[in-house]
Amino acid sequence: MKVYLDLIFFINFMFDLLLLMTVSIECKIFTNKRRLVLSSFVGSFTTFLLFLPINNISLFLFKIFVSVVMIFVGFKVTSRQLLFNLIKSLYGNSIILGGLIYFLNDQFNYKQNGLIFVHDGTSLNLFIILISSPVVFYLYHKMIIDEKKKRSLMHKVSIKYKKGVVNTVGYLDTGNNIKDPYKKRGIIIMDCDNVSLDMEEVILVPFKTVDSSGLLKCIEIDELKVDGSLLKNKYLLGVGPRKIEINGASCILPNIMEEEL
Question: Which pLDDT score is estimated for 104?
Fold first, then answer.
């Protein structure tokens, strides 16, 4: 039986790359393409272990180890929960892909030649790669564009007010058009856990959203820096009861700030 190692390596590399991109899409984790390619190379080299005299248990354990290494190489793992989710997604999609290959092999009478299923000279593995890769590449590229758009709306914010300084990350919300009715100042919205309010200095600003309305407690900002630059326009700091968490941001910036940025 002839086994073409270069073809096996290429097919395994492409399957690993498609799997890692699928994991990235499913877990919504943005990562560098080079890291995914390098991780795929790491996974592909394990193919050659199949030709070494290693028992099945040792091979299985080594594959688990390599899969964990692939996760760390391909993604920036910041917590145990994220690591668990990435591994779960990787093995889950591997099972689905492997099941699909064996199902098609059974339905269309492909014969197994080493690690490749062939029929009349055509490879089932290559056929699946040609069909699935454009879809996965498109979805992954779209996810990267969407993630970059989200990141472009994130800004480092330093807010100095009478009782202290708050350093955080703000999300520029084009839908935040709340202004105080007196001087038309834009309002940065933050939850009450991060700000100490002096009720004697509170300015009440009416607001109305799709699901609620009321009065927002606001205080004046002495100094405001966004991405290290001092802003000249005056803004108010609005304090709400709900905790704000938008892609890592803990405050919402007003839409009129976009012009100044």
Answer: 60
